[in-house]
Write a structure and sequence with these properties.
homodimer; alpha/beta; seven-stranded mixed sheet; four-stranded mixed sheet
């Protein structure tokens, strides 16, 4: 099995595994205990905290260990929101933040009676500093802004240090979810609250880090106890923390070399995939990005079918396509970027990936995509069927109501040749993915996207919830 | 080292350790993933959930795994409080519940604008069913009652099934923190929400269980995600959960025999300690209790000094004395029971404790207590110094303001002989432990406790915050 979903989880780093096993025997006692096992656990914990803090450029007493990166984000958001309540209850949040940030912001604003405002991103998934500046100037009471170090789905780095500078001038703290980059590259400066997850750097599941700069107003908004400054209730998992600290040290020693190797491999994928597979959109910043992530979408392909076929062939990847998520909506990251969501694949390289594994992936991908494109002829659809040109209509309507991604776009691709050059096709669809995929189809095939409007029901076709009418003009 | 603090943590059970190591290699992938590693992790997780649910007498879809027992309690309390908000915002909580329950109830009532009411306990630490019934009848809007299966500090079992019956008649659900008994004895019936911690049954740190009976109104009051029904955000720690399930199965197979063995050993401790050590109060129910816990307090002894001396001699125990806690207040459990708090020791037997280890503990205890009683002569103080009888005063005042436990009681023991039989001693003290320890001293030494009043400052002695004047009448 070739594992290419490191951004989800990686097996425990071998050095971390050794540290874990040793600590299961030596560090299992509560570090709050007075007897020697407790004191030893405390000593080991203090050393791990010191080491991790040093790597992240903060003081040991600014950093606590939580039970996961998710918890670190949740407590970070809720604690900062509560601590900054007097300054304001509006939270600015990047449009492509991790769902854990968005969920916590929802709860924080519900509790405070405040609201969140989204900082938009460009087509590469990068937040707009101009929009952030405008927003800070327009908002009298801004609690804080949440901006990640780099995006977890498309790898694009965010301009966090510039954002932090811009916010600092207005006295607004920055919360940075650095899960994608911790253990891989230097921690960007300027954060007031930092959150991350050890399992993203080869540590075990069950360890998050939350750091809060001295001087930041921060107040627990959850049941507290005496452990980890009251910021992370529950027992401190010393063995897992030691494993996390060990894995971090190992990784950082190899980080620069690994980043370079990963960058070459993802650059190779980025260059080769569009050559090997027709109608592919590779997304995210090609240069200023986390080196281990590469994401692309395949027109006309079902994301779920693609993942399952790749799995059958022995390759593990993830997807932001709607049909692979329990919510039936495409990834909010792809949505905010306005890119194609169908047939979406995220490749994220594990630490010790080989060039051979990447080559193997490239070798099987075209066949896997063919399997995941249910109607092969759809691929040819964007080229007009010559002999029908004479009978082509000036207008055409496609009723794709009730059909799920990628079917509406497949239908469009198959039938665009039935309309005259310059004529328009009206696609009726209620699948939310169509909002992104029809414009993306136009971009990829060279036709004009004219816009969309709510479809209220017409000439015997009933409206369904979320139904839209999309208009496309055929080009040559 | 003889480890007698199993109620805090135990080393991972050997079978659980094996399961853990195997699962670090086989179950590390996210169970939400479509590829085979993910599907395998999901299969392992489902099997573990099924096994644990069966042991606890609930359905697999009623049970989720959290990141700790503390988290299970917190989410249980907050989710039930929010789910039951329309029924009421008052929460009834046993006086000796674990601090995690009390902390969560504080937050729940702060969020709802409600309040908590304490169900009192008797001198053995058992909640009063009569008081609970009165409370339910008096309260129009009761959200729920929280009562543990057995007490974590003194071992006393709670009448949860009777309480649940009484509550059910009034339509009020019961939340049961069963951390002390899960994996050791059958789960009492009648709970609507059940919380527990795997590391109390020999599982690893980082796994809690939260079960919510079908039909119970329960609503997330935290940032949700799609995992574990939205009740336990963050990654699901499959390897740790497998280890927990394995440890549980191993333990339950040996539970009846182990309980019997533990019961004999704690009965031995209970009988022998008062014979070996003068002025000891053994607390908690002698019979109806968790078999592995035995708690006692030693008059005139410093809890911290006693723990450190026992540690020096190679014995690990815990204490509810104020001087061993960062809060400087004695355990709320001992306080609610109204028992002596100084020189407090909780012995909790690990699964495979030997009779020899318990005998060793009994052999060193008298010497350790002598070391922890800073002024040896205090022990003799309660016997009047015969020759001074003639010059004894009718009244005596002891200024122990600013002195910490056990000093006020030591002073009292030393000087009681200076007052006539029938005369009174007035002790001025601001240490909160004195509220419990002076009455307990009277109980243990046979003098009369006459009561206490706030000390506002008098004849040149300034009042300090929390200062009280305690009155004691000397008996023969």
């Amino acid at each position: 099995m070739v594992y290419l979903d490191a951004a989800g989880a990686e097996p425990l780093d071998p050095a971390g595994r050794e540290a874990y096993l040793a600590a299961l025997d030596e560090g299992w006692a509560g570090p709050d205990r007075l007897y020697r096992e407790g004191r030893r656990a405390r000593m080991l914990l203090d050393a791990a905290r010191e080491a991790v803090a040093q790597e992240f450029g903060c003081r040991a007493d600014e950093l606590v260990f939580t039970s996961s990166g998710t918890t670190a984000v949740h407590q970070g958001v809720l604690g900062l929101a509560r601590g900054r309540m007097r300054a304001g209850t509006t939270i600015a949040v990047g449009a492509v933040e991790h769902s854990s940030v968005l969920h916590a912001v929802d709860v924080a604003t519900r509790r405070s009676g405040g609201r969140s405002v989204i900082v938009p991103v460009d087509g590469l998934g990068r937040v707009s500093l101009g929009a952030l500046a405008d927003l800070v100037d327009a908002e009298a009471g801004l609690a804080f802004a949440a901006i990640q170090s780099a995006n977890h789905e498309v790898g694009t780095r965010q301009p966090v240090t510039q954002a932090a500078g811009l916010l600092a001038e207005r006295g607004v703290p920055l919360l940075m979810d650095a899960a994608v980059t911790l253990g891989r590259e230097p921690v960007p400066e300027g954060w007031a609250v930092l959150a991350g997850s050890a399992r993203k750097w080869g540590g075990p599941t069950g360890v998050g880090v939350l750091a809060v700069r001295k001087g930041t107003r921060f107040a627990a908004d959850w049941p507290e106890d005496e452990r980890e400054r009251g910021w992370a209730p529950g027992p401190v998992n010393v063995p897992a923390i030691l494993a996390a600290a060990t894995a971090l040290r190992t990784r950082l020693g190899e980080a620069a070399a690994t980043a370079e190797r990963h960058r070459e491999l993802t650059a190779l994928l980025r260059a080769r995939i569009p050559e090997l597979v027709p109608n592919v959109e590779v997304v995210g910043d090609p240069d200023d990005r986390a080196p281990h992530i590469l994401t692309f979408s395949c027109l006309y392909a079902s994301g779920e079918a693609l993942l399952l076929e790749l799995d059958r062939l022995g390759f593990a990847v993830s997807s932001g396509s709607s049909c692979t998520a329990s919510t039936l909506t495409p990834s909010h990251v792809l949505e905010a970027m306005g890119v194609l969501t169908q047939g979406n694949v995220r490749v994220s390289l594990p630490w010790r990936v080989t060039a051979d594994e990447v080559e193997q992936f490239l070798a099987v991908l075209p066949g896997a995509v063919r399997v995941a494109r249910p109607q092969q002829d759809a691929e040819a659809g964007s080229a007009p069927a010559g002999e029908d040109e004479a009978v082509a209509e000036p207008e055409l309507e496609i009723d794709a109501l009730g059909k799920l991604c990628p079917l509406p776009v497949i239908e469009l691709g198959k039938r665009i040749g039935q309309v005259q050059v310059g004529g328009t096709v009206r696609v009726l669809a209620d699948d939310p993915a169509a909002r992104l995929d029809i414009p993306a189809w136009c971009r990829l095939t060279g036709h004009d996207y004219l816009g969309a409007a709510a479809f209220e029901g017409e000439h015997g076709i009933e409206a369904v919830p979320g139904a839209m009418a999309y208009r496309v003009r055929r080009r040559e």
